[in-house]
């Protein structure tokens, strides 16, 4: 309710406005009761001035007072201050036109565009209601490409790979020679049993079975129904898996695309029953939901695990990835027997090339030089040691009592400081961290690594080439999803391949293996272990040259990390960078700038490490650590030297044969003539001529070999600082 005073004022103002509108300024002035001297403020302006910014005056707000607000809003306006402010601005403008000097209301009149400031959409409180935790499974459901499930063809490979990698890890850890069966079934084709296999996307079942140690019943649901659950993440030891996400991610992909649970059957020993589970993942909570749990009366495996997943996949597009993965897994794991069942095809078996298990990789503690400040503080907080010296000795590898004393002396720390105190005092921890960096410490132990080894790499290559020669060459030489679009070789390419200069079969010589009628030169190199960021690693390189590989194509580069083939992201991988950076022209191969060399060769590069630095969770490419790249280059150069020597020997043998042919044409004549002149038998003269000719050409070859070896020795003898320390 307006007061009587206010009602009177409103009436008065209305009268003023109507008189002004009619041009009766004088009357209006009188009505205003304006007897003030010139320059004094008008009533209107005074009212405007009184009105607080954006808020109505005591009398009901300046805008309402002016009669500018629509009916119903003319009362006290407390809810829409911004609107009121704009109305005030309009009123002020009207008045200013009449008496500009008398309306000093700058703070009430924001400039034009600001008047259209965006409307607040939500308050912090409203936003807070929407903020909540995201479970890891929800995250990876949306970001499945990060785990290698980008598309149905790649998903097929990733599912098989995760299961096979786990089987191999489990067998090796338990000390069992792995026998693994991989099976892919086309459900649509099986339902009809005639016609073609599914073209493009369809429902497939992937089955992987091993003869490993099995999994205890209580652990099965968590392993297959919970992301980030595993036994390998927290330890420093070479293994294929490291993240604890692989098989559960495959289960999640299957569930997402087909709604079917993962089926797991496992048995831990002859006297134990086998259990079979159907497991789903509650993605909201990242927890397993067991939908079936049966005890089996019979199971053909004494111990082992079988995993079955129904997934949406593309066999048509994805089979070549799987074929390649299976072949390469057999190549890098010569102790494994692998049976591969494919839809509508014969079972392909890769028998093991050795009955010896790889050397057992032992778990090691972190090396002090690889630890960062935050990690050091966390380790100190969690330490059960009584003092810092004990903490250093128990938490890290290669810290002897003398080394611990040296570190503490450099940090000016007393050995009796409690580790917990160190973990909570950043200043102290920083001093210790700095002292660790300044102390020379022996390189970490390398028994945590299990390289393939020269001999087994060679045997693996031979049995791989045997299978390849039987199966025939693949259409696509290099597997790279970037280029997956162009699948088949063109007619022209095929013709060029057929016309490519065949590598002539050389007579058996050192390093040469005859495989299915083709001669392959094989060389392997295993480098000594080195360290990157405190993590031990070791590089191995093997090459197979000649045989039926095309001579006019870039070489085949097979990348492996902890014996797992890496099939994607070739160009983003540190291994590729190292091979491209190596100058292969030194080793008699042609090499376009910034590319892989060209020649009839397959090059295998294996990096073994306690923690392979992958560029993403899908474990497809190795990060570009300079220490790793350099080691790969050194190994490649050593292999390259042996290759160059082999090529030169062969070239030389051919050249010599040609020359001998020419000489023989004339030597006969010349020897006869000299025999006649000297009266001696021409035979010894001819023999002497031939010997001289051979000697001259051999000398040429030896000289070339010597030069090449000197050049590469220089490169090998230049270790970097980090290596010097590690050694
Ligand atoms: N076939 C199997 N036999 C025995 N244990 C297994 C088998 N498959 C998985 N496991 C156990 O389940 C754990 C989880 O496997 P998962 O593949 O999810 O992770 P990971 O292998 O540890 O790491 P990554 O994510 O890098 O593969 C493994 O660490 C291993 O302990
Ligand atoms: Mg795994």
Mean pLDDT across every amino acid position? 80
> Treating each run of at least 4 consecutive H or I residues as one helix, how many helices?
23
Q: Name the poorly predicted regions.
A: 1-6, 15-105, 473-489, 496-507, 718-727
Helix/strand/pairing category: alpha+beta
User: What general form does the structure show?
Assistant: globular
How widely separated are the two ends? 93 Å
Range of strand content: 5-15%
Please give the largest β-sheet: 8 strands, mixed
Bound molecules: adenosine-5'-triphosphate, magnesium ion
Strand order of the largest sheet: 5-4-3-6-2-1-7-8
Structural summary, described in words:
The N terminus and C terminus are likely disordered. It is globular and about 115 Å long. Helix content is 43%, strand content 15%. By secondary structure, the protein is α+β, with helices and mostly antiparallel strands. Strand 13 and strand 14 form a beta hairpin. The strands form 2 sheets. Strands 5-4-3-6-2-1-7-8 form an 8-stranded mixed beta sheet. Strands 9, 10, 11, 12, 13, 14 and 15 form a 7-stranded mixed beta sheet that branches. The structure holds adenosine-5'-triphosphate (ATP) and magnesium ion.
Keywords, separated by commas or semicolons:
single chain; 727 residues; alpha+beta; eight-stranded mixed beta sheet; seven-stranded mixed beta sheet; 15 strands; binds adenosine-5'-triphosphate; binds magnesium ion
Compile the SSE list and pairings.
Blueprint: H1 4-21, H2 25-32, H3 43-50, H4 62-65, H5 81-98, H6 124-130, H7 136-142, H8 152-174, E1 179-186, H9 187-192, E2 201-210, H10 220-225, H11 246-258, E3 262-267, E4 274-282, E5 287-296, E6 304-314, H12 315-332, E7 337-341, E8 348-350, H13 373-382, H14 388-395, H15 401-410, H16 419-424, H17 426-438, H18 454-471, H19 491-499, E9 512-515, E10 518-526, E11 530-532, E12 535-546, E13 556-561, E14 564-566, H20 574-581, E15 601-609, H21 626-678, H22 682-716, H23 721-726
Parallel strand pairs: 1-7, 13-15
Antiparallel strand pairs: 1-2, 2-6, 3-4, 3-6, 4-5, 7-8, 9-10, 10-12, 11-12, 12-15, 13-14
This protein binds adenosine-5'-triphosphate and magnesium ion (MG).
């Amino acid at each position: 309710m307006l007061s009587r005073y206010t009602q009177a004022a409103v009436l008065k103002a209305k009268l003023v406005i109507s008189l002004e509108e009619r041009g009766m300024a004088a009357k209006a002035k009188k009505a205003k009761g304006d007897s003030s001297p010139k320059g004094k403020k008008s009533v209107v302006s005074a009212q405007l001035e009184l009105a607080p910014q954006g808020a109505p005056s005591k009398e009901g707000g300046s805008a309402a007072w002016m009669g500018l607000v629509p009916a119903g809003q003319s009362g006290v306006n407390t809810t829409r201050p911004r609107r009121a402010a704009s109305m005030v601005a309009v009123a002020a403008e009207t008045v200013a036109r009449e008496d500009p000097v008398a309306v000093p209301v700058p703070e009430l009149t924001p400039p034009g565009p600001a008047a259209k400031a965006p409307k607040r959409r939500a308050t912090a409180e409203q936003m807070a209601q929407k903020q909540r935790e995201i479970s890891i499974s929800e995250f990876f459901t949306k970001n499945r490409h990060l785990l290698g499930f980008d598309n149905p063809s790649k998903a097929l490979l990733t599912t098989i790979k995760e299961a096979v990698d786990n089987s191999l890890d489990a067998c090796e850890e338990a000390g069992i020679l792995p026998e693994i069966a991989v099976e892919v079934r086309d459900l649509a084709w099986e339902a009809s049993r005639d016609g073609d296999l599914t073209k493009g996307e369809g429902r497939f079942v992937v089955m992987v079975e091993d003869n490993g140690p099995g999994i205890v019943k209580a652990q099965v649901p968590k392993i297959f129904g919970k992301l980030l659950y595993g036994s390998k993440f927290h330890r420093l030891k070479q293994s294929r898996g490291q993240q604890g996400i692989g098989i559960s991610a495959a289960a999640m992909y299957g569930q997402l695309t087909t709604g079917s649970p993962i089926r797991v059957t496992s048995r831990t020993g002859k006297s134990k029953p086998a259990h079979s589970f159907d497991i789903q993942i509650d993605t909201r909570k990242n927890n397993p939901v067991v939908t079936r749990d049966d005890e089996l009366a019979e199971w053909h495996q004494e111990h082992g695990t079988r995993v079955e997943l129904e997934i949406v996949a593309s066999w048509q597009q994805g089979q070549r990835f799987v074929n390649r993965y299976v072949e390469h897994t057999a190549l890098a794991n010569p102790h494994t027997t692998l049976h591969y069942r494919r839809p509508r095809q014969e079972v392909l078996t890769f028998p093991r090339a050795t009955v010896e298990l790889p050397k057992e990789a032992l778990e090691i503690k972190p090396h002090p030089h690889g630890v960062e400040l935050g990690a050091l503080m966390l380790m100190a907080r969690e330490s059960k040691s009584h003092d810092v010296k004990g903490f250093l000795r128990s938490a890290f590898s290669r810290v002897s009592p003398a080394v611990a004393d040296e570190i503490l002396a450099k940090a000016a720390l007393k050995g009796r400081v409690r580790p917990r105190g160190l973990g909570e005092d950043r200043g102290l921890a920083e001093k210790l961290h700095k002292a660790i960096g300044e102390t020379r410490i022996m390189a970490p132990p390398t028994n945590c690594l299990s390289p393939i080894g020269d001999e087994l790499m060679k045997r693996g290559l031979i049995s791989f080439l045997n299978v390849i020669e039987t199966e025939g060459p693949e259409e696509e030489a290099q597997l790279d999803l970037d280029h997956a679009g162009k699948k088949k070789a063109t007619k022209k390419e095929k013709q060029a391949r057929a016309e490519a200069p065949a590598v002539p079969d050389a007579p058996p010589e050192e390093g040469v293996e005859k495989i299915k009628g083709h001669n392959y030169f094989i060389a392997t190199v295993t480098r000594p272990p080195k360290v990157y960021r405190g993590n031990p690693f070791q590089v191995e390189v093997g090459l197979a040259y000649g045989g039926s590989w095309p001579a006019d194509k870039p070489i085949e580069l097979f990348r492996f990390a902890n014996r797992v083939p890496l099939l994607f992201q070739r160009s983003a991988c540190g291994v590729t960078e190292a091979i491209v950076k190596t100058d292969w022209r030194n080793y008699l191969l042609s090499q376009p700038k910034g590319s892989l060399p060209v020649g009839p060769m397959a090059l295998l590069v294996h990096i073994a490490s306690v923690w392979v630095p992958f560029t993403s969770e899908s474990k497809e490419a190795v990060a570009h650590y300079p220490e790793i790249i350099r080691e790969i280059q050194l190994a490649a150069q050593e292999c390259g030297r042996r290759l160059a020597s082999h090529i030169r020997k062969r070239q030389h043998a051919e050249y010599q044969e040609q020359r001998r042919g020419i000489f023989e044409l004339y030597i006969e004549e010349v020897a006869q003539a000299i025999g006649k002149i000297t009266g001696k038998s021409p035979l010894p003269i001819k023999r002497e001529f031939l010997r001289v000719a051979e000697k001259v050409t051999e000398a040429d070859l030896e000289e070339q070999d010597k030069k090449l070896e000197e050049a590469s020795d220089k490169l090998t003898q230049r270790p970097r600082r980090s290596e010097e320390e590690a050694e």
